[in-house]
Amino acid sequence: MLKLEDIKTFTLNVNGEKKSVILGPTDVLLDVLRDKLGLTGGKPGCENGDCGACTVLLDGVPIKSCLMLAVEAVDHEITTIEGLSNTVVQDAFVNEAGFQCGYCTSGFILNTFALLKEQPEADDAVITEWLEANICRCTGYDDIKNAVKLAQNNLR
Amino acid sequence: MDHFEVVGRSVIRKESPDKVSGRVKYLNDLSSPDMLHAALKTSTHAHARIASMDIKEAAASPGVRAVLTGKDFPQYLGLYLGDKTPLAINKVRYYGEPVAVVVADTKLAALRAAELIKVIYEPLPVVDSPSIALKEGAPILHEEMASYAHISAIMPEPGTNIANRTKIRKGDIKSGFEAADVVVADSFSFPPGDHVAMEPRAAITEILPNGQVIIHSTTQAPFVVRALMAEYFGIEPGKITVIAPPIGGGYGGKAGIQLEGLAYLLSKSVGGRKVKLVNTREQDLISSPGHIGFEAKVRLGATKEGVLTFAELSFLFDTGAYADYAVNISRAAAIACTGPYRIPNVSCDSLCVYTNHPFATAYRGFGHVELAFAIERSIDLLAEKLGMDAMELRLKNAVVAGDTTPTQSVLDHNTGNLPECIRRVGSLIEWDKGTVIKKEDGKIIAKGMGCLWKAPAMPTNSDGGAILTFNEDGSINLHCGAVEIGQGIKTGLAQLLAEKLQMSINQVHVVYDVNTTVAPHDWATAASRSLFMVGRAVLDAADDTIRQLCHTAAAVLRCPEEDLTVANGMIFVKDEPSISLKVREVALGYVYPDGTAVGGQVIGRGKYIARRLTSLDPLNGAGNPALEWTMGAQAIEVELDPRDCSYKITRAASVMDVGKVINPHIARGQVIGSIGMALSFAGKEGFLLNERGQVQNSDLRSYKILRYGEQPEYLIDFVETPQGDGPYGMRGLGEQGVIGIPGALANALSRAVGKPLNRLPLTPEEIWKSKEGKK
User: How far apart are CA B383 and CA B393, in angstroms?
Assistant: First the structure.
């Protein structure tokens, strides 16, 4: 008789859709989003929690999906960059060119999105505290800073 | 009629909506169920003999399709010098060198099996700096050097650790020394490091039954990859297709040949199946090539009035275990060795030296950020000794048109206005308000300056091409071989085309992926030359398009072809615009009311090849290797706390003469990005190597780079002296912004602590040690 031990079907709530996925106990959330659900907007940059390119929102809070097991995300609302469309934050990143190569961009946008929802009046110190979690190697951070400011103003 | 002013406007990047939505597909985003996955086993020693390797357990591990070691692939490969096998054979020469690789059904199965490979090493003495590598009796890292194939422009010296030596001899050092009233001599250095592109390198390769080799790669140079793969493995070039999707940052690190050769061999080992090889961050930092290390000795002399009389320079570039681009980096540094200063008597020996460090490849600035650190520090030391203002000394000796470069080629009328750059940067940073200011709280504000020049270092026959095809609405598809690496090249080229054809930029469609079987030949997306060279090709293709449109339209409109012109989606008689046709009526062939069709589709063809470049004379370096020179001046302001030597970079100013600025926002972004990268490099970065040559900081938790909030206020300006042969008068600017910054930062901090800081990175601890005179 077939005996199923280590993998099981779970439901992940991603970008407002319920997704049925087969998960093993060691599957990392980033890999599941990318390889099983085709949501490749979150990137592996270091797979060590240092760079933030894999950032997604869990119940609105930014987390590094390379450091979370997929099973831990069951029963939570996961938002990936694919779940945002024409938001004020995305528009601001376009208008201020808050990216160059774009590899870190999903992480910066999701982090900014969560920050401005949580603390719409965040000052420079708070913005820095949030965004120093992510690394960008292209922009020297100036256009990202301008994008965050623009988004903050436009949300007021 | 609308006038389309597209050049000089901050047009939003074409790829913007896709990039902010996570919808751009980078290489590692591609996957398919038929794909096999590879994982590397890397060396734990910097220099060792491989005594034994046991792969039995790994090969028996579940899901494993192949386990391969160096002996399976005995080919020597290399960009300019064939010094490296895809996997180490018998001996490892750096910590992190790949020694074996596993191909398996899943990434996890491959990683698991790689852990099961057992390697026993017999450690060898480690060569841990280029100066030690040159000492008598130093271990020779490449005993087989004499048998390595290499291009004629480089000169390896078998029996030594020297992979290349470039000599510059201009004027007469002895008379320059005699003419000098003041001479400074000092040494400068920094360790090797990494580009840290956020996207680790990756390759996917498959071999089809008809022999077609399809390589997807995170490459800045798909055509270089095609040519070298054909050469190494004896494949017909036409049987190789290299596809370069947009890449997640390159900075030179993806400009050579990287994982492609190994990925091809892996596919071959499993019957041509598709194999994906992706670096982990740790492998991307140390196994794949990074930023070159450097040791320099500078002697610089001037009259008491501050006129430079001679420069005697010794550059030792630490290429690590293999040469890759570094043999050309040391050469490029020799070509520009003095920095942008008028020095009549120059002697420079620029060596590319093997050590047991991770190996080096192209890095933004390509030899210039390195030489400029040594030169700009020396200029400040000289100013101090002369009792002269450091900006004044720079202004006095800045090159202008008519001066000669170290290779004795004359700077022509296209030369940028460096004195103007220096004056403007001085006013941006408020140099005249003081360069050292003590604050009441004990902190010290200090400023430093650094100048730059750079020409592309590239083969004399470097080229670019463009093909334009039309859609039914008269819009154009722009095909070219330049890779989008975040620099905005596709947008810049679209701007040139839209301006030339007087059309809306929204009517120009760009293709993100470069496919070498489809796109026209292009040397490489490197050396800040794409907008110049591919831009010239695009303008040529636009002319070709106009000719074809007017040719067909002339027959239909029954008028002379030369009386017609194209603008605003119309082809019309210049002096009687009402006689016209729509571009879309002609672009895919004109159809008469009775159904007869003429003309056929318009396909615009454009090309450009570098003009009148020559090789260098091996004895004195004379020649004309530079397409164009971008000049500039930069300055940094820091606020230092003398108690613990921690500091904040408060302002960074940069003024570069880049000719016509095609897209101000993108240009500014390139310069600011360069400055951020250079501040990170000079202030924080570099491998920490132990006495056994092992890298102690091979992840992003310990290899620190600039983070949000650490950036200064950026003050950016441009001088726009037109480049006669550049599209609309532009010059390259993608790399140049890094070059003056390390020197400027070191000059500012040296001024703040009152001690010469001649080693990077400038961490508070290192500054404190210098200040306190500790080792």
Answer: 6
